[in-house]
Write a structure and sequence with these properties.
The chain is mainly α. The protein is 76% helix and 0% strand. Among the domains are: 66 residues; 30 residues; 71 residues.
Length: 419
């Protein structure tokens, strides 16, 4: 019992497929009766692992693991081949689509160029045709030799005559229309028409306006709707006497003539003012040019005098310079520097160089200390990782050893039970 409990605790601590099988066998032995145990002892047991345990969830032997790995490698190769084939087909499809698109673009460009060329040829033909047509028309005009006579100007009289004839014709048409209308639609026989004033309206011929129909009790216009409720009718109307129109036109002609005369006078005055202004401008320009010329002459005379004065001054200065004796031809004297100034500068530079070297050394030492600290930290981390890995391996080995010992004890127990 102590061995069984130890074995069960170990199996619970590290559970593997073989431990699960052994635990199941132990539980099966515990559940068996004495008769079942005797029958099991008489049977010939094989040490071969059952097929369901061997080929259940994962390979249990090296050969099975090798076969499984080989199978996985073959599947991986097949997948790679399929992926390579799919990529090649995809590349070929893309290449074909690109080729088709490029060919389509080239065809479109060619068609566009042809259309542009045809349109240009059409425009050229149209332009040439228009030019030829214009040249033919001009040639026909030149060959016909028809001269246009502008004198005398009788177009205005012809227009007035045509207008008078047209107005007379329209008056005759209006008179005929009014006569026909009076014959077709005579005035109504109503007492209201007789009572109205004759000063307003058209005087119709005939004296039957005041008579009343003898057989009618009510006037015929009273049997219909009132005039203000009926729809208005359009009648052709025109004045028979258009003297006022003629007077208005004559007044307009006179007004236009006066405006044109005033405009011509105004333009004549502007032209005269322009001529006067041009003469004044010419006179002013002449005076200004003469004044500028005089000023230019004065300026030239003044410059000539200045040049002569400068020339005389240079000659006098040169004569004075050559007349005096020269005692020294060397450079001008300068102030001497202190002899220890250069030494002071060199000492300052040496001190600055020493300070720079000390700063450079301190920065280098600080950088080295920082790098050394980083290296120490990395080494400590690496040592800690190695210790953890070593402890993990020891723990794993201990677990495996304990498991193996428990399995050995279980096997010995099974052998004892079998014997």
């Amino acid at each position: 019992s102590q061995l069984r409990s130890n074995g069960q605790s170990v199996v619970r601590a590290a559970i593997t497929p073989r431990d699960e099988v052994a635990d199941a066998a132990t539980r099966k032995v515990q559940d068996m009766s004495i008769g079942d145990m005797e029958k099991a002892l008489h049977k010939k047991h094989s040490r071969r692992v059952p097929e369901q345990v061997r080929y259940g969830s994962a390979p249990q032997t090296a050969r099975a693991l090798l076969e499984e790995n080989r199978h996985l490698i073959e599947e991986k190769k097949k997948r790679k081949d399929l992926a390579r084939k799919d990529s090649r087909e995809f590349f070929e499809r893309q290449l074909a689509s690109d080729r088709m698109s490029s060919e389509g673009d080239k065809a479109k460009d060619i068609g566009r160029r042809q259309a542009q060329h045809e349109l240009a040829q059409y425009y050229k033909a149209e332009i040439a045709e228009k030019e030829q047509k214009k040249s033919k028309e001009y040639g026909s005009k030149v060959q016909s030799g028809v001269e246009i006579h502008y004198f005398p100007f009788v177009e205005g009289e012809t227009i007035n005559k045509n207008r008078e004839a047209k107005s007379a014709k329209m008056r005759e048409e209006m008179r005929g229309f009014m006569d026909r209308q009076r014959e077709q639609k005579p005035p109504r026989a109503d007492t209201l028409l007789a009572e109205t004033s004759l000063e307003h309206g058209v005087r119709y011929g005939g004296g039957a306006g005041g008579s009343v129909l003898p057989g009618d009790d009510v006037a015929p216009h009273m049997n219909r709707h009132p005039r203000f409720l009926s729809r208005a009718r359009e009648h052709m109307s025109r004045r028979l006497h258009d003297d006022h129109v003629r007077h208005a036109l004559e007044d307009k002609v006179l007004q236009t003539r006066a405006e044109l005369e005033h405009l011509s006078q105004k333009r004549q005055a502007e032209r005269e003012q322009l001529d006067d202004g041009m003469q004044v401008n010419d006179a002013l320009r002449l005076d200004i040019s003469q004044a500028k010329a005089s000023e230019r002459r004065k300026h030239a005379d003044f410059l000539r005098l200045q040049m002569e004065e400068r020339k005389h001054r240079d000659l006098s200065e040169r004569s004075e310079h050559h007349s005096s004796t020269i005692g020294y031809f060397g450079p001008e004297e300068k102030d001497l520097q202190r002899p220890d100034l250069h030494q002071d500068h060199c000492a300052d530079i040496i001190k600055q160089m020493a300070v720079d070297n000390s700063r450079r050394a301190s920065s280098r030492n600080a950088r080295l200390r920082q790098e050394r600290r980083l290296i120490d930290n990395c080494m400590a981390e690496m040592s800690q990782d190695r210790d953890k890995e070593r402890q993990k391996q020891l723990l794993h080995r201990e677990v495996l050893t304990t498991t193996w010992k428990s399995q050995q004890k279980i096997k010995e127990t099974m052998k004892e039970l079998e014997s």
